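Readers of this paper often ask what the protein records in our data store actually look like. An entry from our holdings is shown next, in its original layout:
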Amino acid sequence: MIELSQRQYLALRLLREYQKPIKGQQFSQLLNVSPRTLRYEVSAINRIAGQPIILSNKEGYVLNEDPAVLQQIQDCRVDDDRQLEKQLILALLECKEASIYDLTQKLYVSESTIYSLVKRMMPKFHSFSLSLQRRGEWLSCQGKETDKRRMLSHFFFAEANALATTLVNFDGYFSPFGLAELAQIIHETLDELDVQIDDIYIKNIIICIAVCVQRMINGYPSDGSETEADALPISTSPLLTRFVDTICGRLQEQLELTFTEADKATILAFITGSFPEENEQILQNERFRGQIRKLLDKTFRHFQLELDYSAVFDNFVLHVHFLLLRCRHQNFFHNDFATSLRTSHPFIYDVAVYLAYQLEKEFQAAIPGDEIGLIAIYLGSIATYVPTYDLPRVICICPQYHELRKLMVQQLTEKLSCTLDIVKIVSSLSEITDQDHADFYLSTVKTENSLTDLIPISPILSPLEIHRIEKKNLEFMKAQKRRKLRQNLLRFFDDQLFFCNHGLTTEVEILTFFDQLLQQRGVIDDQFMDSVRQRESLSSTAFFNRFAVPHSLEKDALLTKVVYYYSDEPIRWYDSRVNLVLLILSRSDDEQASKIYNLIFDILIDESCYKKMILCRSRQELMDFLEANSN
């Protein structure tokens, strides 16, 4: 079952009724949205479905006619509860008490539905240190005003990003001003102060200030004691203080509001960590630098990586400083880095998740997924490619003439898109001994001995020669991939750890089943599954609404294994829907353990391979499939 928003469901319905392509402009008008929002909604529908349901071509938008896709469309329904939940959150935050009877009439639902929604929403309120209380027919939200503003800011921020717009006018909430109007004031003030703010933080600043101002207009003043009581570090940037003072002064004049020092302090706390400040004092904090270095070293040891991070260390120290400021104040931003890096560089992203976990433990701060995406970018700058397989060993045949050898190595390094391990450079074949091993050879001279793995090249590489080398490298990688799969996956998968259609359709049921099974077999202890759940809480291991690859944060299993579970019925894996779950168990002293994630991901990321893989109904069928499809 696929759950869609009302707008997404309407888009599918329109395409089904028209039964012919709908031009983008006409489609936008029918849905009453902008072309940009239409593109986002189409992308969201395809992402939720895990495959392209809606296609676009020069004639317009049209439904995918594949029978399996059409059946999936039949199973779509509107997620009404999500819309009701949003309305209820606003209603409870925007009044001191709300009558259950009034809410039933306003939202057109029964009392039992209200109670069910309130129960489901409790954890969201608790995450902002708020609680929902019932007194007779009355419901109320209890907690600090700062925390209510924080929850509202998160709410509107999520809504703005869900609609894929730079700014959204929430006409039903913000009045007598709009977000676009406030954004103009903020940008003008930044220009006056000659301050450059990263784009990813701007929307956060606009929405936070808007919520604070609207709460003041609605009669909910800041509590002056809250900021002091929280005793959290706040940015010391003089520029930030001037910025807040200037913004408050302009809004005070325009909206006839009075901003107290408590109001300004609340706004400052909400946007701290998003503003530039003097970095020298931060970089001179040797204790803090030592903590960051210790965590980086521990993370790289955990994944058996040897990376030189000295060139980016100072910048990373600054990044963590501002990250902790944002996290301790529950400040936020949104970017697509986390989503794209999870799928394009899953291993690097997994390293970033582990580093975030270490930062959380060291500094007692919850780190959200968007922050993990930025950490992954830093790691990517250190190691843009973490190889799953060994590099091809190459022997070069090149005369020792002036700088010819140096020139050849330089060209092989700079012009190739792949990386080679040049183990030896010789002048002729006679210098190659029986002890020398190479996967292939490159020669700038004509050789009498016809080696099957020899590629003739000129001293100055031509595009055709580069193509030949890269093609040979690709052949080597494919052959090695088949060999690795045979060597490793045969021992990773187990007949007794292979399950299909056992009637388990939630992450709770599946993880509980795995826990009991693996403890009985003595493969894990009673703490292992807690680590798996904690890893999921940091960032979901579900991809494309097709598969999930859960694993623990620590390599604390007694054996390196993969538990296979497939269900024809979709599995509710936290906020995703998947059909396949592969639980990875890693033993700390297993050198191959760090590569399992990429090995498995290489197969699952290929949609055609995935569709064939889930047809396997035994471990032997799976092994036959993996070997046949690893080329």
Remarks:
- The radius of gyration is 29 Å.
- Residues 226-231 have pLDDT under 50 and may be disordered.
- Residues 80-143 form a domain with the Arc Repressor Mutant, subunit A fold (CATH 1.10.10.10).
- Residues 455 and 612 are 36 Å apart (CA to CA).
